[in-house]
Specification:
By secondary structure, the protein is an alpha+beta fold. Helices cover 24% and strands 33% of the residues. Strand 7, helix 5 and strand 8 form a beta-alpha-beta unit.
């Protein structure tokens, strides 16, 4: 019988490895995941994302907090009783079993009938676009094919949840991009609630409905890919999710509804206000390089000198010196777009809605 997709709830989850082990691996993580949702746990090495996944799977025991599926705690359940499918980075396929035997293994362990196992294996081979591969062995498959077989095995028993721990980390970029689309297609087709651990920002953006960003054991921001990329809450998130300009400035006053102004290099520039900040408050202005517009110096623009212009095919990456500040800008190389070279004087501007103010971070704020 197929399980319906589940609600997953992490409640103040924590994990420590005892005295002398340093900071906790996971600290006070709370997260609600809806039925059928695809959530990426994203963060650098050591951020606690894999430890969090292992606690959900039951391979690590939390030091504090709770894990609930559809409102019921699963902490007392062994990993085998949780009905959770897990895919690891190394795939963990049985080398002496055929593809069909690997996929059918979880069903045999559950005592399913042979006819049901064979039908399920055939269905999953079609789903992962490997029909006719059932008689092959893992060493006869490419890395991408092995990854798909591992995914099919994790899905064979209709798991309540699907957990994936860096499953594409060993693959080359082109194959990774192809398989990302496959994983998303399969997850959408089955509607299984999915938690996907990755350190690859682009992968998280492509796959996930929401991205949960971790840093030093804490959950620092959760939102859609668009929200976390365009509206980071901290300097860490802004810099981790691609390239960002973070420019020291001071609030100069309020503007139209939802907008404010800051003084930067002697010029007033607009930003999208996320809360009241008195004039004179030190801030860091956040703006992505692709939102910075370059042109000739003009009234109201930030005037500077191009330090470098790097052609990268569809776009050119500029580094511009504005007073004491270095500002990055990315310009698409479309027909009629202005082209600048090192040493050129330019004016920079951006739309108010493409910039927000972040509180300057201190060492204390990074290590509460």
């Amino acid at each position: 019988m197929q399980h319906p997709p589940q609600n997953l709830s992490l409640r103040a989850l924590g994990k420590s490895y005892g005295a002398g082990s340093g900071e906790p691996a996971v600290r006070d993580v709370s997260l609600e995941i809806a039925k059928g949702e695809f959530v990426a746990l994203l963060g650098p090495s050591g951020s606690g994302k894999t430890t969090t996944l292992m606690m959900i799977a039951g391979f690590e025991q939390p030091s504090s907090g709770d894990i609930l599926v559809d409102g019921r705690s699963i902490l007392a359940m062994s990993p085998s009783r949780r009905d959770i499918g897990v895919v690891f980075q190394n795939y963990a396929l049985f080398p002496k079993m055929t593809v069909a035997a690997n996929i059918g293994f979880p069903l045999r362990m559950r005592g399913r009938r042979r006819a049901e196992i064979e039908a399920t294996v055939m269905r999953l081979l079609d789903l992962i676009h490997l029909p006719g591969f059932g008689g092959r062995y893992p060493n006869q498959l490419s890395g991408g094919q092995q990854q798909r077989v591992a995914l099919a095995r994790a899905l064979a028993f209709d798991p309540r949840l699907l957990l994936l721990d860096e499953p594409m980390g060993a693959l080359d970029r082109k194959l990774r991009e192809q398989l990302q689309l496959e994983v998303k297609r399969i997850q959408r087709a089955l509607g299984v609630t999915t938690v996907y651990v990755t350190h690859d920002q682009e992968e998280a953006m492509v796959l996930a409905d929401r991205v949960a960003i971790m840093d030093r054991g804490r959950l620092v921001q959760v939102g859609t890919p668009t929200e976390v990329y365009n509206r980071p809450l901290t300097r860490f998130v802004a810099q981790f999710l691609g390239t960002a300009n973070l420019l020291p400035a001071r609030v100069a006053g309020s503007g139209a509804a939802g907008a404010a102004e800051a003084e930067l290099a002697g010029v007033r520039v607009g930003f999208s206000a996320t809360g009241p900040r008195p004039a004179g408050t030190p801030i860091e202005l956040f703006v992505r390089p692709e939102c910075v517009l370059l042109g000739p110096p003009a009234a109201g623009s930030l005037d500077g000198t191009v330090d470098s212009a790097i052609f990268v095919g569809e776009s050119t990456r500029y580094t511009v010196r504005v007073g004491e500040h270095t500002i990055l800008a990315t310009s698409h190389n479309r027909s009629g777009a202005p082209v600048f070279a090192a040493g050129d004087r330019v004016g920079l501007r951006w739309s108010t809605e493409n910039s927000i103010a972040l509180d300057p971070e201190s060492a204390a704020s990074r290590n509460p």
